[in-house]
Amino acid sequence: MNVAGLAAHFEELVGGRPRIFRAPGRVNLIGEHTDYNDGYVMPAAIGFSAYVALGPRPDRKLLIRSEEFARQFEFDLDRLPQQRTGEWCDYVLGVAVVLQRQGLNLAGANLLIDGEIPIGAGLSSSAAIEVASALALMSRSEGHLPLPEIAKLCQTAENTFVGARVGIMDQFVSCLGKARHALLLDCRTLAFELAPIPAGIQLVVCNTMVKHDLATGTYNTRRAECEEAVRYFAKWNPAVRALRDVSVDLLKRHAADLPPTILKRCSHVIHENQRTLDAARAFTQGDLAKMGELMRESHQSLRDLYQVSCRELDVMVEAAAGLPGYIGGRMTGGGFGGCTVNLVRHEHAADFATRISERFRQATGIEPQIYICSAEDGARELSPSF
Ligand code: GAF
Question: Which bin fits 254, alpha (ψ -120 to 50), beta or left (φ > 0)?
Answer without folding.
Answer: alpha
